[in-house]
Specification:
By secondary structure, this protein is of the alpha+beta class. The chain has two helices and 13 strands, in the order H-E-E-E-H-E-E-E-E-E-E-E-E-E-E. Strand 6 and strand 7 form a beta hairpin.
């Protein structure tokens, strides 16, 4: 029999109306990413290995970080393992606008794998800090970082679990563990970057695949 073109047109119109609703909801994600991306930095650190004979090797670590403020001063949060063992002038922080800066001071905590980098640069866009205690399993989250050195990549998912402990993380481990698990893709280079709620607030630091 013949295809009823009028029915097909109505079906297309109905689909378009329903998709328009989804697109309006999806615009929230686009707005969150637009607001937070300038707060996310790419970090490359050079660490000198021990000398072997006359040769000294250099190991490069790449990761991410997020700009925050505390008591009216600006810092970058990242993972300790991203910058571990690197001198200040060997920690290269690449900002969203293309500038490259170095930290003026570093505080690092081996037990939590967290590092705080002090910076002295104007015109930055700090992210807001949220409350991770309010997160529940199933809440939507986004991760922004530099997986495989692809800066400012965005992934999307949910909180899959909370309270993960006794994880084997790197050669030095992490003593204090209370991790959130997410199905948003986390890959090498995402380390130190922010996990965000749908309000664009930082509720975690991505640490391991």
């Amino acid at each position: 029999g013949a295809i009823n073109l009028g029915d097909r047109d109505r079906a297309y119109d109905e689909i378009a109306a329903e998709v328009a609703l989804l697109e309006r909801q999806g615009n929230i994600l686009k707005r969150v990413v637009k607001v937070v991306r300038p707060s996310v930095v790419h970090i490359e650190a050079e660490m000198n290995e021990e000398e072997s004979g006359l040769r000294k090797s250099t190991v490069e670590e790449a990761g991410s970080g997020v700009i925050v403020t505390f008591r009216e001063k600006t810092y970058i949060l990242t993972n300790r393992h991203v910058i571990r063992g690197a001198k200040l002038n060997r920690i290269h922080i690449k900002l969203h606008d293309g500038r490259e800066i170095h930290p003026t001071k570093v505080w690092a905590d081996k037990a939590t794998d967290i590092a705080v980098l002090a910076i002295d640069v104007a015109g930055l866009a700090p992210a807001r800090i949220g409350d991770s205690d309010k997160l529940e399993i199933g809440d939507f989250v986004l991760a922004i970082g530099s997986p495989f050195r692809l800066s400012h990549s965005v992934t999307y998912g949910i909180i899959s679990a909370k309270g993960r402990r006794d994880l084997q993380l790197g050669s030095e481990g992490v003593h204090f563990q209370d991790f959130m698990q997410t199905d948003a893709a986390i890959n090498p280079g995402n380390s130190g970057g922010p996990l965000l709620n749908l309000r664009g607030e930082v509720i975690g630091i991505n640490t391991a695949i």
